[in-house]
Amino acid sequence: MPLLMTLGIQALVSMASLTPPVLAPVAAAEIGMPVSMIGLFVGLVYIGSMLSSLGSGDLIKRFGAIRVSQFCLILCASGLALATIGVPWAIVLGALLIGFGYGPVTPASSHVLARTTPAKRMGVVFSLKQTGVPLGGMMAGALVPTMVLLAGWRGAACAVALFCVAMTVVTQAIRMELDADRDSSRRISLSGALGPLRMVFAYKPIRDLAICSFFFSAMQLCLTTFLVTYLTKEFGFPLITAGLVLSVAQAAGIVGRLLWGWVADHWIAPRVLLSLLALGMGSCALLLAIFAHGWSFAWVLVLGATFGGMAIGWNGVYLAEIARLAPAGQAGTITGGALFLTYAGVVAGPPLFVGIVSLTGEHASGFVVFGTTIMLIGLMLMFTRLQRTDSPIDRKV
């Protein structure tokens, strides 16, 4: 039940965050704004996520992880409803509210799952929960266009908001049980918001993983953001064909999240596995940029699936390892601090990629730079391995 509930919450929050990009072509035309402004909206969402993830630790301890998740669902619903006003201030505030709701959900679910999951199953369970992110994207892509046809873009946004409210009601049934560890006397302060970040940098193994996640998330966003444009402009693929490659990459990411979680639980230590995934996704980026131009569509599809399976599939292993390394009772707090750096990569990656493309005039250069960087990150993870035990870290290193 904890896994099902956290998966459902993750999927709906993800759906809420990805609904505006689906609505953008219709909404922008009616409002009179350029559709490219959706990039700014998404950036604001992740800036809100960065900020709210830092404060999630104290909130989880004070109110409980499920109650915080309920707050997050309501914030996402409010952000979607506010954005339907269709004026700039409402759209900006709506994006920030969605981001404030998106940020604490993963730390809250990590807090719940770290308490309820056997250590030998953490990789699979956390990876399965993280499939809620692409699942929410699939729900947005499959359901929202139909809702737009039935009720207009404002009606579609409000319908997704109602889904979030409904999940808030459903989760109330397990709230008392899973929030039994909350401390109502816990103080909430703005100064305490930096505590999770200080904790991350105090524990070297967690710090290393969090810094690496900045580059992992940047690579992931650049793949999903620029792959279709790259294939159409520099490979000459039709839009539908390029879209198929992206769809296969996304689907492979879901499979990858489950596969790598199982591998981390049974075969390869998580830190080693993450370093191998970094080397793998970096190699795929270089192959895509340098060698794949003369390949057949079938081989490009295989490369896209391999790339997506690694660049989108790493998250569950990363979050499970952060929770495993965290001191007892601190999984939510440390996850919030680590995700600040993860979301920073989401915000910084696409603009950096665009800057490289602007300087060189080709998307291939962006994949070369990012691919080389992520391979260096993989080597750093591999060669800075620390001797570890199966118990959480209980000292600063």
Report on the architecture of this protein.
Keywords: Membrane, Transmembrane, Transmembrane helix. InterPro entries: MFS, MFS-Transporter, MFS_dom, MFS_trans_sf. This is MFS transporter. Pfam families: MFS_1 (PF07690). Helices cover 81% and strands 0% of the residues. The protein is an all-alpha fold. It has 2 domains: 2-178, Growth Hormone, Chain: A, CATH 1.20.1250; 195-383, Growth Hormone, Chain: A. Helix 2 (38-54) packs antiparallel against helix 15. It is globular and about 65 Å long. The chain starts with a helix and ends in a 14-residue tail after the last helix.
The ordered string of helix (H) and strand (E) elements is: HHHHHHHHHHHHHHHH
Q: Given the helix and strand composition, which structural class is it?
A: mainly alpha
Spans of 5+ residues with little confidence (pLDDT < 50)? 386-397
What portion of the residues fall into strands of 2 or more residues? under 5%
Set down the secondary structure blueprint.
Layout: H1 2-31, H2 38-54, H3 56-63, H4 65-83, H5 88-102, H6 105-116, H7 122-130, H8 132-178, H9 195-202, H10 204-234, H11 239-266, H12 270-291, H13 297-311, H14 315-325, H15 331-360, H16 363-383
Helix pairs in contact: 1-2, 1-4, 1-5, 1-6, 1-7, 1-8, 2-5, 2-15, 3-4, 3-15, 4-5, 4-6, 4-8, 6-7, 6-15, 7-11, 7-14, 9-15, 10-11, 10-14, 10-15, 10-16, 11-13, 12-13, 12-16, 14-15, 15-16
